[in-house]
Amino acid sequence: MDRQYIASMPLSDFPVEFVRYEGLPQDARGITDRAGGGRIAWFQDPDGNAFAVEADD
Fold first, then answer.
1. Does residue 51 fall inside a structural domain?
2. CA distances from residue 10 to 1, 5, 47 in whole angstroms, order as listed
3. CB 10 within 8 A of CB 21
4. Has residue 5 been placed in a domain?
């Protein structure tokens, strides 16, 4: 698969589990509202590095 094709795929097509943080209001999928608008979720790679995925409304 080429990079452009992979980048166009929805994240739900991959085995990604969003990280849950105590004290943050997150929906059933692990997504929270971002201050100032939008949404944010975090996931970890196999080495434990955390990454954020953000989306504007």
1. yes
2. 15, 10, 23
3. no
4. no
